User: Which sequence fits this backbone?
């Protein structure tokens, strides 16, 4: 008889859950943003043009995955620093694998049509990591004729390193 008392709880937990909701963070996912050099300004804007975040690299922040009931969010990440060319990276959402395959086993139709779309768990960011190397801007690269400029090797773009000449000490 005790076994039957637990059945409503088991039934309710099965009906009211979905696989992507069980297996992941439903509403948000963390995005890590790094740059070389660091302390670059990061501005994140969503698809509607609303500024979501402004700060400095390195940084880590939660981004909402759900735009609407069956639509995911999309973000534009702008990274810039004085003397360097700015970079823009798009972060989009895609359907979470747990939403597709997991609901076959656990959530069923309720998971597919109600729980995971409502919580945002059906979505996953297409990247969790943005790691950019900022290149010197054209303005910063301009050198007066017959002058020398000393820079760190890490600030020399990889495409120019093959043209460098070693000077003996």
Assistant:
């Amino acid at each position: 008889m005790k076994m039957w008392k637990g059945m409503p709880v088991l039934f309710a937990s099965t009906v009211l859950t979905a696989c992507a909701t069980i297996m992941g963070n439903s509403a948000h996912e963390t995005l890590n943003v790094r740059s070389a050099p660091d302390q670059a300004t990061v501005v994140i804007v969503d698809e509607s043009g609303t500024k979501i975040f402004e700060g400095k690299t390195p940084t880590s922040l939660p981004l909402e995955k759900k735009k609407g009931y069956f639509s995911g969010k999309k973000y534009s990440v702008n990274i810039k620093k004085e003397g360097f060319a700015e970079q823009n990276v798009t972060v989009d959402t895609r359907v979470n694998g747990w939403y597709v395959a997991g609901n076959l086993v656990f959530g069923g139709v309720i998971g597919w049509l109600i729980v995971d779309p409502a919580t945002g768990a059906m979505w996953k960011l297409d990247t969790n990591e943005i790691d950019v190397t900022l290149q010197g801007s054209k303005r910063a690269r301009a050198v007066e004729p017959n002058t020398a400029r000393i820079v760190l090797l890490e600030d020399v773009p990889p495409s120019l390193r093959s043209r460098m000449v070693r000077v003996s000490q």
About this structure: DSSP finds six helices and ten strands in the chain. The longest strand covers residues 28-36.
